[in-house]
Amino acid sequence: MKYKIQLLILAAQILFFCIIALIFFLRAPVLIVTDLSFIEIYGIRRIQLHQINSSLSLFRMVKPVVVADGAGWDIITIALKENSDNPYCIIFPSAYSAAARRYYGLYPNDFVVLLGGKNNDADTEQPKDNTFFVYHIDAETDIYKAGLFAGIITSFDNTEIKNVVLFHDESMASSLQDIFSSGVNENIEEADIVFLSDASEFIDKNRGFCNVFAGAGFDLILRNPGNPMILFSWMDPVYTPKEVWVIFDDSPWTLATEAVKMAKNGQLEGKIPSRPLIFYERIADNDILRKIKNAEKKPF
Q1: pLDDT tens digits, residue range 254-269?
Q2: Domain match, 230 and 88 both
Q3: Using one digit for the tens of pLDDT, what is the confidence trace for 38-65?
Q4: Are 207 and 225 in contact (CB under 8 A)?
Q5: Structural domain of residue 155, as residue ranges?
Q6: Residues 154 and 289 in one domain
Q7: Which of 100, 156, 215, 217 pairs as cysteine with 199 (C-beta 3.0–4.6 A)?
Q8: Sign of the alpha-carbon torsion through 225, 228, 232, 237
Q9: 256 inside domain
Q10: Is beta strand 229-232 parallel, antiparallel or unpaired with respect to 132-137?
Q11: Residues 75 and 17 in one domain
């Protein structure tokens, strides 16, 4: 009798998990437009890990729709419909904003998310409807966290002058530079912060104990400046030197779960911070590591 009860319980458990799995696979999927160049830079294994995590978090399949670089909206639309006739949500990187709008024009009932880019990007303006969502990168939070991390790292420098270098693209607003400085100065009272938009200006006199790359100076990474580095990049970490301690990842795959949740809640616009990847094995000092882990949780 006891044996039969155990079998019934086991059978019920198996049936339960089969029903859950069936529901999971029958639910409309989330599709993410992904081009070949991105896969090459980001790494297929990282995409697969995000795919698993996002699928479990959203309890529905999250699938890449791989297209050739610069594919037209018609090719992308065909590829999307070949993957699913009735997707729950489609995520377009900001580089494919034109394709997102054309798809939305054809299928206005599908949830379309345009993800990434800056707030002043003209091609990411919000349409007047409740099924097209535009989410930008939370640049303020990202640059503040980078400043916090850089300040923590540089505070352990034994030299009298504490140097931090931020390489930035020319479009970075002065307000973001101020936010970065405020993050650095939370850990160093009088840091020497250098802002450069041209890598050729990087010389020994302004070499930072910590160098932050946010849109410029990436060619210096391969030359390995020698000191700890923080990157804003989609680059696969396996191709970075051991001096890269943190990467701020703002890729569509990293932000997809939060974007879908915001769309589900009807939030037409919003900002999503990047995910800092902290390489614990590269940071030998436990005090630095502990402070960085605590700073990661600090809100802007």
Answers
A1: 999 999 999 999 999 9
A2: no
A3: 999 999 999 999 999 999 999 999 999 9
A4: yes
A5: 140-249+277-296
A6: yes
A7: 217
A8: positive
A9: no
A10: unpaired
A11: yes
